[in-house]
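pasting for the record
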Amino acid sequence: MMEGASDREARTIARAAAQQYGIVEPATPVYRYAFRDITGRLTVVDTDDLARAEVRAAAAPSAAAAEFLRAMGGFERAIDARYERFLAEVGRDEAEDLHTTVLTSMITGVLTPLCAWLRQRRGPKAFESLFLSPAYFGPVRPA
């Protein structure tokens, strides 16, 4: 989650900088995918394409570049897309506020605001149920 939050914030900054300085998406495929990744504009179609060896080979000028594209698509699916789903599912209409709260907790190292945010909206033990393993609560005792 921390990786997704950090990457989301970095992409927001890069997208704003690209827009401010008029940097447009490159035409060359390998650079186009990298630009989309850096600015948070990779699509599901892009990641599906990057999962296919023939697409990577056609887009990349070398085996190393093709491997970079494979890893980039995998990172998007495994980290960034999951974090966006987390924000959408847990934060719903307050996804941006949740993201800000996650970042604040990461930067300060204080989880209290995140725990409070989640508990106010999702009920008691919301943080624990989302982020801690069932073993955290100890063994289930027979009634």
